[in-house]
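Bug report (template v2)

What were you trying to do?
Predict the complex of my protein with zinc ion.

What happened?
Run completed; filing so the output is reviewed.

Input:
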Amino acid sequence: MTEWYADVIVDISHEKLDRPFQYHIPESMVDMVWEGVCVQIPFGAGNKLIKGYVINVTQTLQFDRDKIKDIYSVEQGDVTIEDELIRLAGWMKRYYGATMIQALKTVIPVKQKCKPVEKKLVTLLLSKEAAEEKYAFFLKKHQAARARVLEALLEEPEIPYSFLTEKKHVSSVTLKALAEQGILEIQAQTVYRNPLQGMEAGGKLPPLSGEQRHIVERIRQDREQGLAKKYLIHGITGSGKTRVYLELAKEAVEAGGQVIVLIPEIALTYQTVMRFYKLFGDRVSVINSTLSPGEKYDQFERAKKGELDVVIGPRSALFTPFPGLSLIIIDEEHETSYKSETMPRYHARETAAKIGQMRNASVVLGSATPSVDAYYGVQNGEYELFTLTRRLTGGTLPKVHIADLRKELKEGNRTAFSRALQERMADRLAKGEQTILFLNRRGYAGFISCRSCGYVVKCPHCDVSLTEHRDGSMQCHYCGYTIPIMKACPECGSPYIMGFKAGTQQIETAVHKMFPAARVLRMDADTTKTKGSYEKILSAFADGEADILVGTQMIVKGHDFPNVTLVGVLAADLSINGHDFTAGERTFQLLTQAAGRAGRGDKPGEVVIQTYQPDHYSVVHAANQDYQGFYEEEICYREMMDYPPVAHMLTVLLLTEEENRGMELANGMAARVKDGLVIGPARAVVGKINDVYRTVLYVKNGNYEALIQAKESMDAYFATHANKKELVQYDFSS
Ligand code: ADP
Ligand code: ZN
Ligand code: ZN
């Protein structure tokens, strides 16, 4: 007779999660015990009966058989919030191909042993020279502690307070004295606190428009019948979506329920959060990435105890353990940040749908450019669609021009700016209006290639092209590998080895050359490295301290600039030529968002999209602000190619130290797939990171369940054929 054992965890909100205890499953319970089930077990020397959760069922014994106790009973009766979360983890494990531990850790916040200390930052206020002088002075005066502080700050101008007190043994008195001398500044690290602490809830909202009322009433009708359904609100920025969310949240709370509001981190701006605070006062909490795990845990505890009605946050706020959750709102549902990049690679949209189903909560998505996935859900009847057609903030939709870069080149224009863009920039400068130039790329110039033989300079560790920087170096943006710029091609000796595509720095320089009087700000990964610099640049631009803002995609989100009347997209091709099947969708979204930056105020806006592919459907439909037209072409392409959301796709990524091992394993795994279309194996787009080879394999199938089966067969092969250092990751797209 086969014996079955269960790995049981006893305290799910604890680090002990890593150490399950093994129990024997008595024969009478074999059919009742599986992953996620809650059981009573005798625990410790006194065999006290406690509650535990089964995370794995196995025939493999991990201890002596006679040391293993029997499960006492399977817990029945009331389902607690923990039970729900465990069930959710069980679903995520299977649906996203993760381990139960990975799924549990995603779903359940872990209690921290020590209380987080107040986080403070110390910032150097002196110039490098002045600081070096002070440092020498303190050394000479034998003020060792002060010298240590300056030494540390010279290395890193911004360091945690606790690092100085604990690691450098500097007293708080010393730091205070240095602050008083104006050498440094001590600041509390910005943690999102309720700025209206103690303020009365219930601020006034403007009355709903007809379109808004229709949405609220439809959803109310469904709730009154006990139905928890899924809805998509399609409406451009400023069309009143957030006003609808506020109304829906208010009604849900008045009916005794609680609400989770997901917002992409980057859009989690003061203004949005403030609108919720004004309505719900202390009953709302914001969870974002500046919270430590301990602080997040505290917020989740407050939610569990009924101290909160609304939680706002990015992806992970989805797991807020509200006892009476009745509504989940996902704003800007098309954002890629809603998909997790670690196992389990869950998508917030799908997971919200699952939670909604488990807990009878409605799910409301909103977007100006709905994801193809969500819109496909509308076509299937999975989501009900609402459309908000008017912009309530005033301002008109911008006029969009497409500039054909091939034509520019043919007619002798070798600059990065089409004549259409140049003329309009000059016009805005003359009128004192602002311009945004948008480039989907970072660094001084793009990849370096030889114009004579085509050789491209690549990182030897990561297999990506190096990027030229103005300081005369070339760098790898994955591992940081840096070499000096080459004067001649290592392949053919030609001197015509140079940068190819423009970067933000180069654009900035070109703008300076063309319009020497223009004030230019640049925002990209390089200029936003230090804390707060992102906000600083945006507010400087909003305050009119510059005429032109040059930046990467980070400038197209959030923030209103009423004086911006021109947006230039410098090279739409950079995202059109992306390497996966969502490139068209991303391009459409980016172009639409970029266009939406122009004409927010009372002056009309214009947009110039520069491209080598002016006939590409994502460019054409974005220029016409035609979502429907875009969707129809895009879904045709997905249908033709069997890409998600039409079919489902599983990406298998193998990480191996030897190049051929990745192929070997992938081929072995592919042979185990009985059902579905296998593509590859191939080297990943980035074939190597930090000397680890990356091999990919794709499996497509119209049936998700079949894909899960395929994953399980492949995983079984991997488990028996891979060595300890080899890794596999699964990623489902549906
Ligand atoms: P979205 O979330 O779609 O960008 P918002 O809800 O933020 O739109 O609305 C845009 C602007 O219009 C906000 O300033 C908001 O206060 C205002 N607004 C929204 N709904 C109404 C309404 N029914 N009456 C008056 N102003 C409104
Ligand atoms: Zn060459
Ligand atoms: Zn590298």
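What did the reviewer find?
Residues 450, 452-453, 455, 489, 491-492, 494 surround zinc ion (ligand 2) (CB under 6 Å). Residues 117-191 form one domain.
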